[in-house]
Amino acid sequence: MTDASAKAPRRPGEQALTALGLGAPAADPADASPHSFPGGGRWRTEVPSCEGPEALAVVLKEASRLDVPIHRISQGSGVWMLTDAELTEMVDATAERDIELCLFTGPRGTWDIGGSTRTDSQGAGLRARGHDAVAGCVEDALRATESGVKCLLVADEGVLWTLHRARAAGIIPADTTLKVSALVGPVNPASYAVYERLGADSINVPSDLTLDHLTEIRRVSATPMDMYIEAPDDLGGYVRMYEVAELIRRGAPLYLKFGLAKAPGIYPYGHHMRELTLATAKERVRRGRLALDLLARHGADGDMAPLGSRLPGDLRRFDAPS
Is the pTM of this model over 0.85? Predict the structure, then answer.
């Protein structure tokens, strides 16, 4: 990274505020996460909402131009929204650069005939409704992994447990990783630990969790955490770039997700949304560059996990029935 990584990390505005008598108390070492990724490093990067090969090409080109390191690229529309040719193209392009590709599995409640998701309570949310929806998620998982996809994105506890059991039984490859969507992300340490035991290798928490919430989670689980540094509007539109260094200190091992506020939703993607999708894909990479520049200026850009690393380490699981 930059020479700034050799300096002691500092907080935003720290020297000026101290000179004005407004300095903050020293960080409490007890708040820091004791965990890291296997193979070293405390943070990785992710560019989300990469909906198809054309958007992927834009992300890769822009990442090269702006020198943005990428560990993972994820897609939100689902495996079923990609043709076989598109699926293969995305797998090959990411494999060539040793980037993990994560694709969403199957039907979800917000897109089917259930009316409860459209009520004020938004009951059931994105979960898989009924046996057929679970079956669709499994079908997507089989198709994706047979094509070389190594990371699957899920939004239902039952689907997560089913795919973990499939992984343990050799139905899908043992090194497949399972990522929990921000749309069902846990908000307390007890539920975070349950997701880990159900098979999650990476858990996306809502971007409105406080720093203390992250510390609480890290006291019970070492499962890698994903967090939107800038969240889409339908997830709150939070922008937490100035907190990136502290988010890493509290939440490591942490995936920094470069989302985009003030942009329309694009799921499920189709060519009728092409221009918007390509423009927002490019801007997500630029947002990533801005966040990485902030880390560098604060002397906190060291300790990035090696590019190409993707596995979560040893995690705790419920016993799967045979």
Answer: yes
